[in-house]
Amino acid sequence: MPSTSTDPGPHTAGPGPELLGTRLRLLLSLLEADVATVHDGLGLEGMRPRYVPVLRTLAAEGPSSIQDLAGATGVTHSAASQTVAQLVQEGLATVGPGSDGRRRIASLTAKAEALLPALDAEWQATAAAATALEAELAYPLSELVGEALAALQQRSMLQRISDAAPDLIRRRT
């Protein structure tokens, strides 16, 4: 006899908060894949969407430290460092020591500067498309992401998991 329970059970995939990370990865994948397709159409094969904010920041601000790039693009220092390392491998940036010898300073190469007009056109079109997407949503995604990041800065997901299941997280002493 079939079950008439409305409880989907612990292993049923649904659109609830327990799948937040999975669904955010899917959303990001869909967004990045389409922007990469635009890059390919512009003859920018190999240009990753994560490169563009760093390249545009370097074009606008000039040579910049990894820390400044992280702040300007809204990513961690580690993520900015990894992106700059990839840009160096692609011949789009160079890195040298800062004036104090502790900071690394990234600069655009001539190859990157030649790509800027196409990247700026893509950036403007993508921004317009993102604005149109947000107009279709009940709540602007950019605001929601900002609120989520702020909430996690106040109390990390690890803290929240620990609050929900104190015995699940081993405390280090």
Give an overview in words.
The chain starts with 19 loop residues before the first helix and ends in a 9-residue tail after the last helix. Helix 2 (51-61) crosses helix 3 (66-73). It has a three-stranded antiparallel sheet with strand order 1-3-2. It is globular. The model is unreliable at 1-9 (pLDDT under 50). With 173 residues, the chain is mainly alpha-helical. Helix content is 60%, strand content 7%. It has seven helices and three strands. The longest helix has 27 residues, at 110-136.
Overview in brief:
The chain has 173 residues and is mainly alpha-helical. The protein is 60% helix and 7% strand.
What are the salient characteristics of this protein?
single chain; 173 residues; mainly alpha; three-stranded antiparallel β-sheet; 7 helices; disordered N terminus
Residue-averaged pLDDT, rounded?
Answer: 90
The main sheet comes to: 3 strands, antiparallel
How far the N terminus sits from the C terminus, by CA atoms, comes to 52 Å
Number of strands: 3
Query: Whole-number radius of gyration?
Result: 21 Å
Strand order of the largest sheet: 1-3-2
List low-pLDDT spans. Answer: 1-9
Helix content: 55-70%
Structural category: mainly alpha
Overall spatial form: globular
Q: Report the sheet-strand fraction.
A: 5-15%
Output the helix-strand order: HHEHHEEHHH
The total of helices stands at: 7
